[in-house]
Amino acid sequence: MNVPATREDLMIVNMGPHHPSMHGVLRLIVTLDGEDVIDCEPILGYLHRGMEKIAENRTIIQYLPYVTRWDYLATMFTEAITVNAPEQLGNIQVPKRASYIRVIMLELSRIASHLLWLGPFMADIGAQTPFFYIFRERELVYDLFEAATGMRMMHNYFRIGGVAADLPYGWIDKCLDFCDYFLTGVSEYQKLITRNPIFLERVEGVGIIGVEEAINCGLSGPMLRASGIQWDLRKVDRYECYDEFDWEVQWQKEGDSLSRYLVRIGEMVESIKIIQQALEGIPGGPYENLEIRCFDRVRNPELNDFDYRFISKKPSPTFELSKQELYVRVEAPKGELGVFLIGDQNVFPWRWKIRPPGFINLQILPQLVKRMKLADIMTILGSIDIIMGEVDRLEYLKEVYGMIWVLVPIFTPVLGITIGVLAIVWLEREISAGIQQRIGPEYAGPLGILQALADGTKLLFKENLLPSRGDTRLFSIGPSIAVISILLSYLIIPFGSNLVLSDLNIGVFLWIAISSIAPIGLLMSGYGSNNKYSFLGGLRAAAQSISYEIPLTLCVLSISLRAIR
């Protein structure tokens, strides 16, 4: 994060990750000049669960229950992209009825996602009433999901080649009733919100994104269409059976938060049109392509015939992914949701890379909030519509690298000292051998390096000689206290501009206090030996250590006082 160095009255504020308007565990480090935003740095990684690596160690059917945790408000889309990838990889045909059912479920999921965006977004800018209203229609959508899939949120409904089950009896009529009711609800939202002067004051002209800016940042979904670009993958890629329905792409050209609101409101109305046409024209036939449940795998025909005729059991879904790669995408409520898949003639994907729309759309947030007010952050962030389940990526690697860079300066001196000791041992043996005019005792390895390593290892790990009548604990702990206190004194050394472990204002006194512990360790070793001569030696070593510290402390204090003055 770049903080201007010319201003001294800037304030750095931490927003999240437990802020209710962060829409998940998102953390923002905001630099403020009064209420004006100077800089903003999003921090991720609080919800990362390694979904891509889990996919590479599961079959597609095993992985399907996991994917609904990416975007847990638009779960049908995560299931759709998960099955579309192997379908295109294996050129699998989906029955017409299954395709219609998929479209219906996807558009219902789009409506549920936009509803749960609208309520919290209005709450973020101070309107609480719509937050309660949206749950009324959202619960009706979840009732339809529960009737068709058995689950309200995490459905596990999509399958390679179709869906898990057909629509139950009476479900189509119930869904048509919902469509008629929901159109009146949308009209109610528009009367309540769209022309509200307080709402317009908060969103109009806030967070403007230009056309070129949206394209350069890779934005998609309502974020892109609100900037004047009519790009919808349902029209562009013509996946499933969207090209058989009559509907329009919703777009605006202003690019502000109000435009993004209008696009999402219009998309809910268009989703109702698609659902109504699909329900009225849904064909008969199978809801799943059962012929490809075990494609590209040689099976035992006798066993399969036995299962089919006597057990009446569906074959185990062991799909082999052919050795090729492809990128598949769908138009999710938040934008382009894609998966890059590489098959390796195995039931597990060799590579499974997720392209979440929220993660890509969030990258423009620092640019949008600059030179805006602090209160506008909630408006802009809410208009982006993020879900941290899909946004969180491998940000934890940044933390790992940060820990490594903190540990490197600490271990570097230790490694240098170890190498120095080994080099000194090797040099001592070479000098001794030269004095005695012979190669040296047990000369091993090139230039005696192996012998030096052996001698250094012996010095580091040689057996301790403990007095028989002494206190073993005191005798062992004493040297550790003396050495550790010296190592702790390195805390005040500034290894870098951002690697100061202790403030220098108190670091000098901290160093004096820590270094004064070393004589205590020496006294403990002498006392623990239970030998008067060893104890006298410990007293002498402690006195010598103190005699070194007194002039050194005076020198450090004089320098510190000089610097303070």
Overview of the molecule:
The structure is a single chain. Helices cover 55% and strands 8% of the residues. The protein is mostly helical. The strands form three sheets. It has a three-stranded antiparallel β-sheet with strand order 1-2-3. Helix 17 crosses helix 18. The longest helix has 40 residues, at 396-435.
Percentage of residues assigned to helices: 40-55%
What's the Cα radius of gyration? 35 Å
How is the main sheet built?
Answer: 3 strands, antiparallel
Strand content: 5-15%
Derived structural class: mainly alpha
Low-confidence stretches: 395-399
Features:
8 strands, 565 residues
Topology, pairings included?
Layout: E1 11-15, E2 27-33, E3 36-43, H1 51-55, H2 60-67, H3 75-89, H4 96-124, H5 129-149, E4 158-159, E5 162-163, H6 171-194, H7 197-203, H8 211-216, H9 222-225, H10 233-236, H11 257-281, H12 301-311, E6 325-332, E7 335-342, E8 351-355, H13 357-362, H14 365-369, H15 376-384, H16 388-391, H17 396-435, H18 449-461, H19 472-488, H20 504-515, H21 518-528, H22 532-564
Antiparallel strand pairs: 1-2, 2-3, 4-5, 6-7, 7-8
